């Protein structure tokens, strides 16, 4: 323990692998964030301390706004550089898919820094389009309209055209063509139209099924020809100027992206050959985040960088267009996850631990103890008699299962079953210590960490703040934000405070695969211990439900500030949900609940179950509680 250094922590948590230059550890063991990936840094513990002083306690979302700005700049500059290097005679016009994070403070920040790049918005529903209409005010940037469309949606998009916005209505289903033709004539608007094609290539990663012949959106080749002919007959030939395709989300393999872009570019060239004035190719989403830092084609990683993605897209389109002697299109991408995921950090406070304590002593057994206990004790005390650790573990596991069977059928007392469990845990701990530094470990012994793991109870809800982990098994980098100059002695899993057994994190990132436990430090009496969950800015903010009536957590927005002693300031804080704010969302108004409680208090007073003053205090406490936060205080 005395030889532990911050470089050991960097390695065990993979900070340099997934951190992209945005995270490091200070000499005193605090986790630092570098919003601009330069020498300027902020201690995350300082942010938490200041947030608490302002009344924003964990669970807490920290938005590093300069990091968000940095991601928008990096994406746009990567395409600018790739276009220059490949001598690509065309432009890049990125759009942010608002579904990834619709929160005002996120979208406005993206549009502000994106102004210099003519960075636009993509909407996929009427609600999102209404947000986009109001926020989009750059006539040079794009507003892409995706998703299923009814008359109201299409009318809104056409009204955007009247306002001078550069709007593209992307046809997802062939039936949308007739509505667009009819409504554009009625409104007297010449629309900009794109066709979304169904790629025939195989997808990869968690969202592989979102492309291919069975994809939810897009047109088959026969439908593309039909749609093109309909537009010609309607006199809207010049309206078709964009081809759209989607590669999937979090695509781990650059080869998949290259193949998809090649195929998409072929559709663009063919429509150009057919006489349509094609100008834009929209490559959709797919740009991934290297959550585990392995730079591999594992589903929680990517075997390419952002810059390699941009070069691949530019080069693939250039090659296809050169082959068919077609003018290079303006390249559009809808990268959401890669832009917003890194800027958001979820801070969890550990409230308690659940440990498997092993306190077996050789003299604790009696002559009359059940034979299964004696056999377990023999395995514990005479490990030298075993040729391998695996043989010893399997024998102990068999006896432990036998003891449980005896207990279930009434042949072991509770105290005896507790002893059996205790001895088994001690055997497992003994083996775990012995094999810790072995280069090769038998597969059956991998589960020792999980068997012995301590549960760290944290004040949050997985279902509200980390829905992708529960629903999709998405891995996120998770690191304690202090004490990183100390060796973490505990192998732990994380459980939340919801009344659901699925409210837990028991899979963690690792450079080689994934692991079942996370190294954490032992709690100290009177000292708070915080854990950071990173890269949670995509989808998690907006997709959480109201499971157990836990609402949004507290939130602070952080900016770099060289004039401040600690290098930052909190521009804005947003209070998390109170109980009274959540209840109306499920049709319970505060007044209604208060009235119901008053009836019960009145009955209790009349029956002399409680005194009148006590009833008044009880009702006042109930009403006061409606204004409190949903999480532990």
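^ structure tokens above, recovered residues below v
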């Amino acid at each position: 323990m005395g030889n532990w250094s911050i470089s050991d922590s960097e390695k065990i948590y993979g900070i340099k692998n997934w951190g992209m230059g945005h995270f490091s550890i200070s000499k005193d063991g605090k986790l630092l964030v570098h919003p601009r990936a330069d020498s300027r840094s902020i201690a995350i513990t300082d942010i938490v301390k200041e947030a608490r002083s302002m009344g924003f306690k964990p669970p807490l979302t920290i938005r590093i706004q300069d990091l968000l700005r940095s991601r928008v700049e990096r994406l746009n500059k990567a395409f600018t550089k790739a276009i220059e290097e490949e001598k690509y005679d065309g432009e890049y016009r990125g759009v942010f898919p608002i579904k990834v994070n619709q929160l005002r403070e996120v979208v406005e920040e993206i549009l502000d820094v994106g102004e210099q790049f003519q960075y636009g918005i993509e909407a996929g529903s009427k609600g999102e389009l209404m947000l986009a209409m109001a926020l989009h005010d750059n006539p040079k940037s794009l507003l892409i309209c995706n998703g299923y469309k009814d008359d109201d949606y299409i009318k809104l998009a056409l009204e955007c055209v009247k306002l001078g916005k550069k709007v593209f209505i992307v046809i997802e289903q062939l039936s949308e063509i007739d509505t667009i033709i009819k409504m554009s004539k009625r409104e007297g608007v010449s629309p900009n139209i794109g066709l979304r094609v169904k790629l025939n290539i195989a997808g990869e990663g968690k969202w592989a099924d979102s492309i291919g012949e069975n994809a939810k959106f897009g047109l088959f080749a026969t439908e593309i020809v039909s749609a093109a002919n309909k537009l010609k007959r309607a006199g809207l030939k010049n309206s078709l100027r964009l081809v759209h395709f989607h590669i999937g989300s979090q695509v781990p393999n650059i080869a998949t992206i290259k193949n998809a872009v090649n195929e998409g570019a072929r559709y663009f060239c063919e429509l150009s050959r057919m006489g349509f004035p094609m100008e834009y190719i929209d490559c959709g989403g797919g740009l991934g985040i290297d959550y585990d830092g392995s730079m591999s084609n594992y589903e929680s990683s990517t075997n390419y960088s952002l810059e390699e993605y941009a070069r691949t897209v530019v080069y693939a389109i250039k090659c296809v267009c050169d082959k068919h002697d077609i003018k290079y299109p303006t390249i559009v991408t809808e990268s959401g996850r890669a832009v917003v995921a890194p800027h958001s950090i979820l801070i969890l406070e550990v409230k308690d631990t659940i440990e498997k304590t092993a306190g077996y002593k050789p003299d604790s057994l009696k002559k009359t103890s059940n034979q299964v206990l004696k056999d377990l004790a023999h395995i514990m005390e005479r490990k030298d008699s075993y040729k391998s650790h695996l043989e010893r573990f399997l024998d102990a596991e068999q006896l432990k299962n036998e003891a449980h069977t005896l207990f279930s059928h009434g042949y072991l007392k509770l105290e005896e079953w507790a002893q059996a469990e205790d001895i088994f845990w001690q055997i497992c701990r003994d083996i775990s210590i012995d094999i810790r530094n072995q280069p090769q470990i038998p597969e059956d012994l991998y589960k020792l960490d999980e068997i012995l793991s301590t549960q760290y109870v944290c004040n949050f809800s997985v279902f509200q703040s980390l829905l992708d982990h529960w629903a999709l098994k998405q891995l996120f980098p998770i690191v304690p934000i202090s004490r990183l100059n100390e060796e973490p002695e505990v192998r732990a899993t994380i459980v939340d405070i919801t009344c659901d057994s699925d409210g837990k994190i028991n899979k963690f990132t690792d450079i080689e695969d994934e692991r079942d436990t996370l190294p954490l430090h032992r709690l100290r009496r009177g000292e708070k211990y915080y854990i950071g969950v990173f890269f949670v800015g995509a989808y998690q903010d907006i997709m959480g439900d109201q499971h157990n009536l836990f609402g949004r957590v507290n939130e602070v927005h952080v900016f770099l500030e060289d004039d401040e002693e600690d290098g930052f300031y909190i521009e804005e804080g947003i209070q998390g949900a109170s109980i009274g704010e959540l209840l109306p969302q499920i049709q319970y108004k505060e007044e209604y609940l208060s009235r119901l409680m008053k009836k019960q208090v009145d009955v209790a007073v009349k029956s002399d179950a409680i005194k009148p003053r006590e009833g008044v205090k009880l009702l006042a406490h109930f009403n006061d509680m409606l204004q409190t936060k949903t999480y532990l205080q």
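The domain at 88-335 is CATH 3.20.20.10 (TIM Barrel).
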